[in-house]
Amino acid sequence: MDEALDVVEVVAESGFEDAFAWVLRALGILLVLAGLGVWLLTELIWLPVALVAAGLICLVAPQILLFLVELAG
Asked: What would the pLDDT profile of 29-47 be if each residue is shown by its tens digit?
């Protein structure tokens, strides 16, 4: 977790926090859509759940990570 906060801190200091947040959000949306597509087109259960969960984490992670960096520093 410390490494992730260090990376986010470097990104925040360089002024790219908005770009970082949008890249993670776009990745999250793609993962959620991929999970829904796999769920609709196959009979797999665990893969769509994993994709949707990872997508939701990517959608929420930028706000949490940037908040923790601002709180710590």
From this structure: 999 999 999 999 998 889 9
Cα distance between residue 44 and residue 54, in whole Å:
16
The total number of structural domains that make up the chain = 1
Q: How far apart are CA 60 and CA 28, in angstroms?
A: 9
Domain that holds residue 47: 2-72
25: tokens are: 């959000």
